[in-house]
Amino acid sequence: RALLGHALERGSEEAVYKNILRLSQSFSEVPGLESALLSPATLEKEKLSLLVTASGSDLSAEFHNFLRLILAQERETLLRSICTIYQDLHNKHHNITICELVTSIPVSHEIEEKIRRIVTYRTRGPVIINKRVDQEIIGGFVFEIGDYRLDSTVRTQLEKIKRELTESEYL
User: Fold this and answer.
1) Which pTM was predicted?
2) Span 26-66, pLDDT tens digits
3) Is the dihedral of CA 98, 99, 100, 106 positive or negative?
4) Comparing C-alpha atoms, which of 114, 110, 116, 109 is closest to residue 145?
5) Percent of the chain topping pLDDT 90
6) Which residues are 152's β-sheet partners?
7) What is the spatial distance between Cα 76 and Cα 70, in angstroms, rounded to a whole number?
């Protein structure tokens, strides 16, 4: 919260957000990054260099100072969680809704836009749809928005039928 407030005051909120996104992506793509940060053998100066590189070439002054503070306070174990929380706070501040859509085949642009229009109408704000293809669901889709989950997959329906048949007292 403090970082978001500070970035908003300084007018660098979007730059800090981009740095946060890039660092989060680096944590996901570079498995050794977190290990190097947590290693007592890695010097603070080296950790800062790693974080600066992992956060992207256009590092904002506010985010650079934030990284230095995190390292000085020996809070690097919390950095990945801080990135996630910052993204959530940023999205809430800008009324951005994040949705997850899982399908067995890629979704057409028309269907994605129809979903976006419906969610935008209900939330009155920008919508980001994270799409993923998972052939194991066989058909249908899973749609998640906040705590709401709509599972309309063939796999789930088949599992429900199987469960009902195995629990049936008539068999």
Assistant:
1) 0.73
2) 999 998 999 999 999 999 999 999 999 999 888 999 999 99
3) negative
4) 116
5) 76
6) 141
7) 6
Q: Are 102 and 149 in contact (CB under 8 A)?
A: no
Alpha-helical regions (H) of the chain: 2-10, 13-29, 31-38, 44-54, 61-72, 79-93, 109-123, 154-167
pLDDT (0 to 100) of residue 63? 93
Amino acid identity of residue 114, one-letter, is K
3 state DSSP class of 167: helix
3-class DSSP state of 171 = coil
Assigned token pair, 14: 């979007």
Mean pLDDT of the chain: 92
**Which residues, 6 or more positions from 53, have their beta carbon under 8 angstroms from its beta carbon?**
none
Strand partners, 144: 100, 149
- What is the 8-class DSSP label of residue 22? H
Q: Of all helices (H) and strands (E), which one includes residue 149?
A: strand 148-153
